[in-house]
Each structure stands twice: as C-alpha cells, then as structure tokens.
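Newbie here. two chains, one complex. Structure please?
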Amino acid sequence: MRFASHRDIARAVERGVRRAGLPIAYSAGFTPHPKISYAGAAPTGAASEAEYLEISLTRACAVSEVRGRLDAALPDGIDVIEVLQAPPSLGALPLEASLWEVVLPGVSPDDAARAAGEFLACEALEVERLTNKGTRRVDARAAVITMETDRCAATRGDAGNAILRMVVRHVIPAVRPDDILAALRRLAALAPSSPPLVTRLAQGALSAEAVGAATADVGLTLPEPWQPGPQPHGRGTPGGQQLEITRTGGAALAAATRRDVACDQLPRGAEGPLRPSAPGSLTGDSPDARQRATRHRVQR
Amino acid sequence: MGAESVYARLEPLLPLVSKPIQYVGGEVNSVVKDWDATDVRWALMYPDAYEVGIPNQGVQILYEVLNGRDGVLAERTYSVWPDLEHLMREHAVPQFTLEGHRPVRAFDVLGVSFATELGYTNLLTALDLAGIPLSAADRGERDPVVLAGGHAAFNPEPIAEFIDGAVLGDGEQAVLAITELIKGWKRAGRPGGRDGLLTDLATRGGVYVPRFYDVDYLPDGRIRRVAPNRPGVPHTVAKHTVMDLDDWAYPRRPLVPVHESVHERFSVEIFRGCTRGCRFCQAGMITRPVRERSITTIGDMVEQGVAASGFGEVGLLSLSSADHSEINEIAKGLADRYEGANLGLSLPSTRVDAFNVTLANELSRGGRRSGLTFAPEGGTERMRKVINKMVTEDDLIRTVTTAYGSGWRQVKLYFMCGLPTETDEDVVAIADLARKVIKAGREATGRRDIRCTVSIGAFVPKPHTPFQWAAQADHETVDARLRSLGGALRAAPGYGRAVGYRYHDGKPSIVEGLLSRGDRRVSEVIRSAWADGARFDGWSEHFSFERWERCAREALAGEPVDLDWYTTRERDYSEVLPWDHLDAGLDRDWLWQDWQDSIDPSGAREVEDCRWTPCFDCGVCPAMGTEIQTGPTGVTLLPLPTVPARTGG
C-alpha cells in the first residue's frame, strides 16, 4: 500500500466497511457518503504503521467485532490494529508529530550520521517542492525535532543501507519526509542507489521537554497508551525514547497500518519460494506490522 | 523458463513512475495459485492502461472461469505506461503479471482481449517487453501461445503476423476447451512441438490460426482467395456461443482495485446479444442471438457480487438493457431490495424510449438525478432510417420531456458523423434537435437551468455489419461537418449555455478504420508505427495521425494499396473481404441486402427486431445452432430468501 494515494486508501476502506457489513452511517443529502474521516494521511509513496481514522456507526458494536471484521475485509496491506469506542472526535487526538523511518539504499551509516549532524546544525533549510499550484518553498529544518541514524542497522542484516529515524512536527504547510530528504541530498550530497523507503512508525503528541530540548536524543513522547486493558509487552524504540499513544475518543476509532505491500503481497497464496529474500529487497524481512506497533507501546 | 517473481527488481522503479499502485496487484478477489501445482497457465491481458482494463468484463469472467478449475492458473497483465516501459527496458524487467509478478513469457498462453483495434500497438509493446518474438513465425517451444479474443478478433487479419490464434465469440467454454487441448498436449510430451499444438487448436479447439491459411491477392490489390494450407483445417472458422448464461453466472467475485478505475461499479450482464439491427453496430451483429440471463440469476449475482466486492454501485449491463423481457421486474425488484442501503443502481440507457426514463426513475428512487444518456445516432429522420435506428423526432422529444419532467437536469445525446449517404445538412440538423430538446425541457420544468450535451464522433465501418462495404468518410469531411455543427450550436440565441458540445475529430477514426477493415498487409504498418513509437493509440495525448499516415505510406510502398484504399473506398459485392472466412453466423447475402436497403435512393427500408416480429433470416440461428432466449419467467425478486442487513443513517 506504500504506493497507494490517500484517495485510494479511502476508497479501499469504504469498500472494506461495506464488505465487513458494518452498520456505517451515511451523511445526509443528495449524495450520501459514508461517514469516515482521517487524520493526517501519509503521503503517496510512504508506508505507515500508524494511521488513524474514525468511522461513525448507526448502532453500538463491540470493538473487537469491528476490528476483526474490518481487518478481515480490508485488502492485504491494510491492517486494523486497534479499535476504540469513545466520545471525543478524531480531531481531539493530539497528533502533533510523526516518527518516520527512512531506509537509504546504498548509503553508509557513517555518511548518513554525518548528514544528519549537518542537517541538525543548520538554522533553517528551505527546499522547493512542485505542487499542482506551482513550486512551494518550505523550511525542512524547522519541522524536524530529532534525527538520528539506526546504529544497529548493520547487525540487523541491513548492511549497505543507512536507516534514519526522525521526529517531524506536523506543520502547515506540511513538511514531508521527501522535503527533508531533498534537503539532505542538497546539504550532504546523500545519494541513495535507489529510491529511499519511507515508513511512518508512529504519530503522537510532543512532550514539553521534547519541544524545548535541543539534543537529538529527546523526541516524540506519546503519553498514556491509547488502549486500556491488558498491557502489551512494551519495549523502548530502537532510538531509546519511549513512545505512548494517547487514549482518546471518537465514535469508533481505528488505528490502521498501510504497510508496504511487498512484505505480504508477493507471497500471498503461494508459500515460501516467492518471498523476496534477495539482498536487494528491503522490505521482505520487515516484522509484522502488528508486532511493530506493539513495540512502540509502553508498559505502564 | 523460470516463473520467479520480478517484484524485487520492479519495486525500486515504482517510486519513479506515475500512479505506481496500478503495478502492485493485490486487488480484493484476485487469486494467486501455486505455480507448480498447475498444468496449464494463462496470462490474460487487456491491452490498455490498468485503469481502463481492470473493469473489463471479458477478462474478469475468463479469469474466474479459469481459476475455478483445478490445475489451471490465470494471472492478469495490463499495458504499462511509457514511463515504466522505459525503466523496464533500462533495468531488464520483463512484462509481468499482477498476481505473482511473474514474467509473461513463462506462461503457456497469453490471451489478449481486444475491445478496440487501437490496442494493437500495445500488444507489440507487451510482447517485446516479455521477450516474446513479435512475429508468431519466430516463436519457439518456450514462448506462450498468443491468442486474441474480444470483438476486434472478428477480423484479426491486421495482427495475423503477431498472434498465433484468434478466438471468435464467447470465451467461457472456449478457454476451457483450449485448456484441455494444451493439457493433453503437454502430458503427451508435446507431440509435434508448437506446430502440433497449433494444429490441435485449429482442428479441434475452434481456434483460428492465421498461419494455416494462405491469402492470395489480385493485381489490383484486392484479395483473390483465402484458403487453408494444410489438411484438417476448416475453410471457415465459426464463432463460439454460450447458450445458457445462467450456467455461466460470472463474475461472482469481481476484482476490486485499490487504484481508481474508469468504472467504479459492479457490472452484471443481464443479457448478451442484440437484434435491434442498427446497421453500424458490430457488437449487435456479432453477438446474436439474444440470450437473457434470468431475473433470479441476476438478483443472486447482484447480491453476491456486492457482498464480495463492497462496490457502492451496480450497473445492469448489456447492449440495450431496457430490452430485457423482465427489465421492469428487475428494476423494481432491485430498487425494493436495496431501498435505504445506499447502493446505486444504473442502466446504460442508450435507446431513445420514454420507457427508459421510467426505468431510470425506478433505479434512482430517492437518489440524485443528474444526467441521462440517449443515442439517436443520426441528426435527421432520413439518417436514422439509413442506420436502422427507428426513432422519430417525436419519440425523442417525448422521451426528453419525460426525463426533464421527472427531475433529470441533464440529457446527453450521442451522434455519429460520416455515416453512409450523410450530407452536411444531416449533421447541422443536430443543432435544431438540441434546441427542440432544450425547449421541450424548459416547457416541462418551467426552469432554465436544464442542459443538453451533444456528443459526436466519427463513424467507422466495421466487419460483419451491413456497412462493412461502405466508404468511410475522410477526416477532412468529418472535421468540416463537426465545425459546422459547433458553429450552429453556438449561433442559437438563448440556447448557447444550455447546450454542451463534445466531439472526437476524424483523424483517429481513419486509423481505427484501417485497423478494423485491414488485411494481413496492415501488419507491417502496425509494426512500423509501433517501432516509430506508437503506444496507447486510444489516448489522444499519445496518438499521432502524422506517424500512422507516414508509416502506412512507407510500409505499403510496394503494394497497390494505401491508407485511403483501406478506409474511404467502397467495396462491392464480389470483393473477397479479409474476414469472409471468419463466420459470425450472419448470412453474407442478408448483410448485402441490408446494406442495399439502407442506401436505396428511394429511401432506406427498415428492419424490425426479431424478438417481437418474425425472423428476418440474418442467418445466425441456423448457422450456429442457436436460438433466441428470452423471458418472461414470471419470477419476482421479492419476497427474498434472505434479507440483507439494512443500513442507513
């Protein structure tokens, strides 16, 4: 689903909801639309393990049932991780920033670390982006709270690829990972051998310390797990910070991932031999999105 | 030939191309089978962009029919846009299927569905990217058998050089028969090699194999004769006809793409064939006789298809849907069943008939009524008689009055330009008609904000129709008439903003005409246009008339024929047409008589529909051993065996 646009995802969800037979509410008017809304969709080309959407239903349904039916009905590559039934709306979710992971094929971790250092040392870094309405200039540096390289990448079998993780504030106009990569390319001549693979790992609130902090070690803090009940076995993120997701409301909120299809689209139905395991495949070994999401949740 | 996925090599290219999701596959209801557990493997292709190809019914039906069999695997492939084509060449990524991203060359069969001749150059791109030799004669043991199907396959001569075979008519049973022959041939150790298999397909599989027929020409360029060049091969190849559509209720699990497509709906074919007898209409001539799907099967298909796909709209598809003997019951039954379920129902309403409006009203009950489409095709009554479209001006005015009166705000009218015997006046008269339509609408509604859009394109004479002998109008004539019509529409005071005008210019139609009625010599034109860069010829931004004109001139330089000879030349009765050995069931003399009736200087004679008048001997039923199958059955869709969950806010 990395290559699906937000419109594509929205259409797929709408049909998934119909296939799941959920009692979806429709807007009034001449052309009724199902009431589904989204928080800050990931850009086309990026995978995501943390998308949030809100679905209005005409009657109360058990969250476990909604999760199960919707997850089963959605196409491969879109997984429903959690469903919550609670009052306030999607807008009340404190989604102030995203944690992004960027795999840079053919870039050495040292080069990436140096580039990240240079990037963070800058005051501002304007980049141009082509939009439908012409070019637009954004300050790529201002939105970036933290940026660091994954020092364990080499030992995980990602040798030859650098992995960047960065916390990027949601600002208007939006600063996308692509803008930041464009700045890095210009600043430090980072030249991946093939297009970088971008994945959103989490969204959440910025803690006060994070906003005020100047070091790269402090980042996104997501207070309070958003799902009460049995605690997932939490673990710090590889970068060392702890992430939490705020509990919040909505008629029915779903956290969904749009994973890169490559990790399960290819072998679908055909076992083993087709799974991409060549060294060039960056996504074949990625862990299951559900485990990955769980990893970002914190033990309280 | 390995069938390993090429996705690892394709994926790094995808961020560099437009709309990459179309190359990823993973559609809901797509099927991935274990390669090694199957004996016969089909790659099905629709030779156009994914967004156009994915809703295609033909491919979806065959995909499900084939994958429904044990030991048979079918995957799909579509044309890649030039941006990805260039990258695939650069990185040596072959044409791939969407299910397993397997190389097309690894399959036993490449089946290509041609709804239009403008997909021919895209076939060459796919063959070339797949590493399959363009000329069928150069293919070896390791190459798939390339089969053409779809309406354009009724004259596959222009692509005879590039295909191994063509299948005429309904594919459901034909693909299974072909599959059995391939399975037997493989199990027996491939006796006779590739030639042995093609002989089997030609002699026992109902497949037209062009290489088994020799074509001789007269000095003036016309065909002298077409004859089989080996024993056992039939002199004429007949089309396939599925007689009971209830036995073949496909698609059951429609493919649901993530990428946006041109038809965002689940289509149910409610009958096949049409005997209205419009003389320009190839589809109506080659799909005879009419075979209706029963009301209960239609109801079940809608129910299951919507549940399996999640589509919010259902289209009731056929060549003239209002003609189903129980269309009233179907429309009412479905509207009742899905009342309040937010399921859109639509009918491609093309006949000018007030009854169509009643149906559309029923289907859009409580919903929005935006636009209705009708196809009078000809601007004057004389013209409509020539094409046997029996619609009077009164019919049209009555119909649009009903439409506007029932709340429809916009009416779209389809016309053709360049029909046989047409004059400038016949086309300019469309402007008068549009004014009368608006006037009637304003009177019916008392409002001025209603609209009428005139949509017009150039007529292309097609094989197996009464107009197969006709001269196609040259593009200068067509374009001049379209300009006059545009001027006349704009010149009407008080109507200017109420009338919209859309037209397709005449040049692409000339190329379509060349590819429709061409013979084997046109293969070289196609090859040279493709080599010169022709791709996606159905898309105006990719089409170049200059290129086709130049390539036709060069490729046909040594022949006594040229582009005009194929298009704007009228043929006579005695001429051997390139498709005369391909049998759509239609009696050639009946077609000729119908052609003569249409151009009779004392006025065209009309032909009725054999569903409600006696048989007029078009020849199909006796030749094909078929008969008309229509209702009514008297069954209704309510009460229901199961009541779907009612939703709604």
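Moderator note: Residues 641-649 of chain B have pLDDT under 50 and may be disordered. The longest helix of chain B spans residues 424-445. Thread marked as resolved.
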